[in-house]
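This section describes the prediction task in plain terms. A model, or a person checking by hand, is given the sequence of a single protein chain and must write out its three-dimensional structure as a string of tokens. No templates, partner chains or ligands are provided. The sample shown here is typical of the held-out split.
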Amino acid sequence: MKLKNRRDEILKNLVTEYIKTGQPVGSTKIAEKFHAPISSATIRNEMTELEKLGYIYQPHISAGRIPTSKGYRFFIETFLKEKKEKTLKKIEISAPGKTKDLNSVLEKVSKFMSKSTKEIALVLSPETEDERIKYIHFFAINNHNIYTVLVTDTYTSEAAPIIKTKTSTNELLLIERFINDKLSNLSLKQASHLLGKTKSFSEEFRQENIIIKAFYQFLKKEIRKNATRKIYIKGIANLLSARITLAEKKVELLLKMLEEKKLIEDIIEDVPLKDNLGYLIGKENKLPQLWECSLITVKYTIKEMEGMLALIGPTRMDYIKGIYVLEQIANNLEEFANKIIP
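The expected answer:
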């Protein structure tokens, strides 16, 4: 075994053992992991070199070693390069018939992520204004209370009253056909822009423009209502697990951070990505609240809209399993969405 390869193998075994036990790892334990015979003295020498290079450190005299952020990063990149995968059970989130919209799917995804990894799971929804209109329906109650229902790529709005004006069923049907012809397949942002700049769609509907204008106001409210991305957070109780030894004050600070949805959104979107995967380890995180934690993020795409999956866990989290779970979910979310969204 070449010196470099042997040192790499020692580091990988050390990180694996520390993730498993949470205890500093000594040379004797690493020697047990090698297929080829190697002395504890040789391993200690290699560990000394790894410490000089910044991959591991010794928390106190006579103790074993613990990985640094640099050591964890080497471990992750090596496993990803070698394309090693954990064997996990088939990822099944929900039967399509039991899920009514994308938000329900994303909530179930966050629960699955937390349960599968034992970490804090976060799911950041796509931006609503990029959703595309599939259909707009108008109907009247008592011949003058006009309601609308908006159907997009990812959700169906509740029936909402938009105006009181007397109109016939046939007139309302004509308006519905006309506006669907103009707005179908546009994003909410594009539809709002078109409605806002057009004074009159057609001479044919001059008298009915009052309803179209009322729908425009409804659409603007709908965009504002959903402008902030939804964030689903599950598994906060995992902070109290035996794997995490944060001081009480640090747990309190982390919990407060998780309550700030906009802050969480910014943190997740700030993680540098390579091939839709990113991770920050320990003090690579900007916020002190996360210095004893690691963050894994994976980008997903649904109908050309982008969202994020993320895990927060201790620095000795099972990175390979976490990455595998997130990537498998991201790869399958489009398929899940197609089953529930016509």
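For orientation: The two ends are 57 Å apart (CA to CA).
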